[in-house]
Amino acid sequence: MAAALAVLEEGQRVRPGNDVAIGDRPEAGTLVSIVMPPAEPALVGQANRALAARGGRWRFASEGTPGPIAGPAVPAIAGLQVARRYRIEPVAGGGGGRGGPGTGSDSSVLATVNGEPWLVRDGSVLVLGSRLDTAWTALPAAPAFVPFVDALVNRLARGEAAVTEVEGSPGVEFRTRGADTIGAIVSGLDPRESDLTPAAPALVRDVLGADVLDAAAFAAARFAGAGRRDGSGLLLMLALLIALAELWVATRTR
Description:
The structure is a single chain. This protein has 3 domains: 2-157, no CATH class; 161-196, no CATH class; 198-252. 27% of the residues lie in helices and 25% in strands. The protein contains 6 helices and 12 strands. It is elongated and about 125 Å long. Mean pLDDT is 80; it is low at 95-105.
């Protein structure tokens, strides 16, 4: 995790501050806390009490079975294996979002393992079912790890929006929240207008009602049919008659 954050800091995707905290329990004074289960099972109860003190509606439960990560909120890591995790379950009487009793706009399941919550949004807290090290999941060793940490900190925690592409006059419109740029809308012409890939013969036939022929077929079909006869002989005969007429006129005028 530290190495991934260092890479993101070098790329100016994160910077030191108190917007987001990552640890075993929610941090006071932060905008969002990303909470992972403690390394020691004996400390899970303390983590749950800290979540409850923050008004949390989810808690760590018993250890879950290994399995692959799934979820549309984190498509880049879908299918990566989790070897160790804690089940995340809604607190009795609290809202659980999708997959739990009750609903809430600030409480939702963002990723699952074996159909059970693995990454959950709980108001200003994101709860992860595994620690981000190779003893728990293959994620830190995968190429998608740094982009996942980027998405976790900036998009899921801080609410940064992805770049949106639309058709229209070329331009860029930035979305800001205070002094932070959280998204951008890039507009431009339909990229298909610049695609020089030859169309398939079937598409040309459907759109233009024409056949696409190779060089040999085109040469054979060029003068085929009653309406497309070779006119070169007639033109040569006409040119010869004009030349003879000019010769006759030139001879008569001498």
